[in-house]
Design goal:
Blueprint lengths: L2 E6 L4 H11 L7 E8 L2 E8 L2 H8 L8 E7 L14 E3 L10 E6 L5 H7 L10 H10 L6 H10 L5 E7 L5 E7 L4 E5 L2 E5 L11 E4 L4 E6 L2 E6 L10 E2 L4 H5 L6 H17 L3 E2 L4 E2 L8 H5 L3 E6 L1 H18 L3 E5 H4 L10 E7 L5 H12 L3 E6 L5 H5 L3 E3 L12 H18 L6 H12 L1 H9 L2 H9 L6 E6 L4 H15 L2 E6 L17 E5 L5 H12 L5 E6 L11 E5 L7 H19 L18
Parallel strand pairs: 17-18, 17-19, 19-20, 20-21, 22-23, 22-24, 24-25, 25-26
Antiparallel strand pairs: 1-4, 1-10, 2-3, 2-4, 5-6, 6-7, 7-8, 8-12, 9-10, 9-11, 11-14, 12-13, 15-16
The structure holds 2-deoxy-2-amino glucitol-6-phosphate.
The site of 2-deoxy-2-amino glucitol-6-phosphate has 16 residues, from helix 9 and helix 17.
Length: 612
């Protein structure tokens, strides 16, 4: 996720900006840059790679000045290059032209193509939406920087956390927020701006959080915040009592919990600009296939490991139901050593959060070698799998730092559901079904929040299960992969033995495991398999198992077959994993915390398994 730092005050800006970028490194990035204004001239340096490489590039070059902006970029629009790195600079260097305007930006400008066409200046340095925005602001500048920014933002669709600096205004920074956080730190006539409080904590704990639609004009002598209609907005100053480590987790105790709570926001990033409600389909360019080529696909293979594979298993139900496409899901580590039957009509999706998993990378190469069409579903921009599959789709989950994958999983499912719909709408899926599914997707973030609000009660439930040594998770249909994912979450951070099972498989063997010492977590949505799942629950309760039931809100019957129950909002069957997995993430998390585990860095595991 990108990071922003801005400073205006009586100190030299450069060291404050560079240290601020280092404090934001935990957010993940692939390039960095800094711009400082002094004596009517903006000096800027940018570098691909780490902040230390940027600092090395600046070296002993002079960058005097007590006002500046800086940025760490997590590539979204445009590759990982110096020219795409921020800060962007537009306009002519003084004294020619209107001076130079510089911008750093987090977020996605959805209508950047529309704006780009209308710009007078058609010379572009980068491939980014941010440069378009910078030029859009520059063309509206007539001496009043705050007004130019406000007017420009009225034309923008998308999200932004933005800081603007202009060579004509050595005592002013403009900051604006819509959907991407920005915080202003205040200290004796000095002002710090950043994506979160971390960079400002060494200097001040007095902060003001910008809200969506607000524009802050920060001058050496004061701070003025307005809305886009230029109406003054009064804002409280908050005293932050976090240390730096806690700040990086936005106040959460662990990255894993922060990332679980990130899911509604990053889910919106995964679907933003990818829904075509009028046609009831998805708009995913990553396939690089024409509708005719898509119709020639005869089968799909999904290869991945761990949580990514569980997302693939959910997608299997969607591809088969919506697109009537036979879909096989396999472990990467198995696929690459068997004799898979693939040909030019086989579409292989390779799913990976890190984009560096060795088994998945080698399996992708094997599939390509055998002539399949291979596409990546990846989180980390520019990662090896993303580059080698040449085409595919980024899931836009932002950096996932906890070893246990959570927000990447729900975003993988989001993207895969959109692909299944895109294929389905070329075949038998009706417009009405497509529109109903898209509407249901749009409702997911709010429904995720309904589940997340139960965090405290789920913590209490987890406390009742943490002392067992074995836990079974059972689900059916599209929620069988949810049982697998719930078991994986539990085992990898609590170190307890957990197993995910298809509900119907119990009586074929695993039922022998069940006793009063082995509790069962059952996923029981009110869908077509409801009665079947109730039978599975009855089987385990008859053997004395304690049962935690994850049920659909309003299902009072479920209480009769549950020792503990967690309710989840209703949604379309294919979307159920997006909601029913969240209680299991929180359940595992709170058990692990209660057991004193190293939740973000569990023993024996790595975030990215780059070895076989
Ligand atoms: C999931 O919580 C684990 N961290 C692990 O199973 C992970 O999903 C797997 O290693 C695949 O990683 P990838 O998505 O980066 O390829």
């Amino acid at each position: 996720m990108c990071g922003i730092v801005g400073y205006i005050g009586n100190k030299q800006a450069l060291p404050i900006l560079l240290q601020g970028l280092r404090d934001l490194e935990y957010r993940g990035y692939d390039s960095a840059g800094v711009a400082v204004l002094d004596n009517g001239k903006i000096t800027r340096y940018r570098e691909v790679g780490k902040v230390d490489m940027l600092a090395k590039k600046i070296g002993t070059k002079s960058m005097p000045g007590n006002i500046g902006i800086a940025h760490t970029r997590w590539a979204t629009h445009g590759g990982v290059t110096e020219f795409n790195a921020h800060p962007h600079l537009v306009g002519q260097n003084p004294p020619v032209g209107k001076g130079v305007l510089s911008v750093v930006h987090n977020g996605i400008i959805e209508n950047y193509r529309e704006l780009k066409k209308k710009l007078k200046d058609q010379n572009f340095e980068s491939e980014t939406d941010t440069e378009i925005l910078a030029k859009w602001i520059y063309e509206r500048y007539d001496g009043n920087l705050a007004k130019a920014v406000r007017e420009a933002l009225l034309d923008v669709r998308g999200t932004y956390g933005l800081v603007v600096m202009h060579a004509d205004h050595p005592h002013q920074l403009i900051a604006a927020r819509l959907g991407s956080p920005l915080v202003i730190g205040i200290s004796d006539g000095e002002y710090y701006i950043a994506s979160d409080v971390t960079p400002m904590l060494p200097y001040t704990k007095q902060v003001t959080f910008l809200d969506d639609g607000e524009v802050a004009s920060i001058n050496g002598d004061g701070l003025k915040i307005v809305n886009l209609r230029d109406e003054i907005v009064s804002k409280p100053v908050t005293q932050i009592d976090w240390d730096q480590e806690r700040a990086q987790k936005a106040g959460f105790e662990h990255f894993m919990l922060k990332e679980i709570f990130d899911q509604p926001t990053v889910f919106e990033d995964a679907v933003r600009g990818r829904l075509n409600m009028a046609e009831g389909t998805a708009v995913l360019g990553g396939l690089n296939m024409s509708p005719e080529q898509m119709r020639e696909v005869k089968r799909i293979i999904i290869i991945a490991e761990g949580t990514a594979r569980h997302a693939g298993l959910v997608a299997k139900y969607a591809f088969e139901r919506l697109a009537n496409l036979p879909t096989e899901v396999d472990f990467s580590s198995e696929f690459r050593y068997r004799d898979p039957i693939v040909d030019k009509h086989t579409l292989v999706f390779v799913i990976s959060q890190s984009g560096e998993t060795a088994d998945t990378l080698m399996a992708a190469r094997e599939a390509k070698r055998k002539g399949a069409v291979v596409r990546g579903i990846v989180n980390v921009i520019g990662s090896t799998i993303a580059r080698e599959t040449k085409a595919g789709t980024y899931i836009h989950a932002g950096p996932e730092l906890a070893v246990a994958s959570t927000k990447a999983y729900t975003n993988m499912i989001a993207v895969l559901l959109l692909y299944a719909l895109q294929f389905g709408r070329l075949k038998h899926t009706s417009l009405a079904t497509g529109q109903r599914l898209l509407q249901a997707l749009l409702e997911i973030p709010e429904k995720m929040n309904v589940v997340l609000k139960q965090n405290d009660s789920i913590k209490k439930v987890a406390g009742r299960y943490k002392d067992y040594h074995d836990i079974l998770f059972i689900g059916r249909g599209v929620n069988y992969p949810v049982a697998l994912e719930g078991a994986l979450k539990s085992e990898e951070i609590t170190y307890l033995h957990a197993e995910g099972l298809a509900g119907g498989s119990l009586k074929h063997g695993p039922l022998a495991l069940v006793s009063k010492d082995v509790p069962v977590v059952a996923i029981l949505p009110k869908d077509q398999l409801y009665e079947k799942m109730k039978s599975s629950i009855a089987e385990v309760r008859a053997r004395g198992a304690r049962t935690l039931v994850i049920a659909t809100a309003g299902d009072d019957e479920a209480k009769e077959i549950a020792d503990d129950i967690i309710y989840v909002p209703d949604t379309m069957e294919l979307l159920e994993p997006l909601l029913y997995t969240i209680p299991l993430q929180l359940f595992a998390y709170h058990m692990a915390v209660a057991l004193g585990r190293d939740v973000d860095r569990p023993r024996n595991l790595a975030k990215s398994v780059t070895v076989e």
